[in-house]
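Tutorial handout. Part one gives the primary structure; part two gives the three-dimensional structure as tokens.
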Amino acid sequence: MTAFAFAAGEAPGAGGVGSALAPLPFLLLIFVIFYFLLIRPQQKKHREQRDMLRALKTGDQVVTIGGIYGTVVDIDETKVKLKIAENVKIDVAQTSIASRLGWEGEKKGKEGS
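Part two.
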């Protein structure tokens, strides 16, 4: 039975280092592709979201992750108070704000200057 196993594959000790390193360039290529297609764009999106939250101020119109439109009334370290209708104010987590209306336009305007 052992003779058959040796006959089916390479001779023991003959494959060595060359065959062990053969998949390395392929794995590196896959990592580079994953980095440029998945990791890097996600980091950029996270950075833009963080910058938008830091630039948030009272009077800004925002949309939450749940789709609630409102105007920022007060900003705390972790919470934001939104006015969503006359005499209706709610507290939401700062991280639940998906976007600020007009944020993209302001950003493009600053780059053009």
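Part three, for discussion. The chain has one domain: 25-112. The longest helix spans residues 24-54.
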